[in-house]
Amino acid sequence: MTDTPADAERTRVFSGMQPSGEAHLGNYLGALRRWVAMQEEYDCIWCIVDDHAITAGGDPVELPGHTFDLAVSFLAVGLDPERATIFVQSDVPEHTELAWLLNAVTPVGDLERMTQYKDKSQRFESVPAGVLNYPILQAADILLYKAGAVPVGEDQRQHLELTREIARRFNATYGETFPEPEALIGQAGRIVGLDGDAKMSKSLGNTVPLLAEPDAVWERVRTAVTDPQRVRLSDPGRPEHCNVFSLHRHFASEEELEDIATQCRAATRGCVDCKRILSDHIADAFAPYRERAAHYTAHPGEVRDILEAGAEKARTRAKETLREVRSRMGLDWRRALEG
Ligand code: AMP
Ligand code: TRP
After folding, report:
1. Ligand nearest to the CA of 15
2. How confident is the model at residue 189, as a pLDDT?
3. Pair 164, 96 in one domain
4. Which of these, 125, 167, 283, 294, could form a disulfide with 178 (CB 3.0-4.6 Å)?
5. Mutation test of ligand 1: which of 27, 54, 187, 250 has the most ligand atoms closer than 8 Å to its C-beta?
6. Do 118 and 218 belong together in one domain?
């Protein structure tokens, strides 16, 4: 695929997701749904950031499958290789090269101030440098394509601010090169997991997998924690204190929501029945995605071809930026041969 003339005029958008396997409801409501919609309007680049996934080691046996499964999730929900560039980060080594170059304009103090770094580094006795340098690679991802906008969740705001700072410093030191990308923070906020407490996250085991069959969706949703004060069926519930109700908001019509809330408050419907409604809604809403996913799982060669074509397209753009950056930094010794 080549850049259409329209690409040059549309704002370029970049975002990435780490391959921790099949996407879940939080990924969908918080990110993917929005990415799909943005393809209408923007020149989008969607990246599976496997180089990010190894910043603190990781499992080399699991990673290839996780990367493939996330690619299937991307395609299943409607990220569209005809309209966007979809690829795997490690297929475009320019990401890691630019990250190295950006090390030169990134103060260690700025990296140490990152909240995510402070959280993550506590889990290690000896902190891998990758955990500290993670945001430099993220800045490289974005700046490599001179993206103007980056749709991310609230938790990434600080990393985006650092990306802008890195762009400013680079431009000030070596000449105007990078636009400062704007963070497009999603409205969905934090989707709470089935434990009713923490952010829905694969590592916490509190997710609803996006592509699960209806039975498997029910297996998960039936475990969801509801209003803790509603112990017996006859206790009136409080929808505003129930995570299942929060999830209903994303799937039920206004009328249904009204009914769900009323029956909950009056204790005329139990939590199990209420969860059943949610489970059915989720399974129905994602039926077309399951169908598409089944197709790609049965035809893995198609996924490979899409990712390889995406990487090639990304690489063409990436090489251009890198040539410019290397030259600005003096990494073009042949210039010494010129008179
Ligand atoms: P992660 O799986 O944490 O790498 O996140 C990938 C993308 O999904 C990011 O843009 C997150 O903001 C979004 N995301 C992940 N989990 C949630 C959640 N529980 N609520 C909202 N957005 C989420
Ligand atoms: N750090 C992001 C996350 O954990 C993933 C990511 C890597 C990213 N590179 C990016 C997001 C570039 C936006 C742009 O969700």
Report:
1. 2
2. 80
3. yes
4. 167
5. 27
6. no
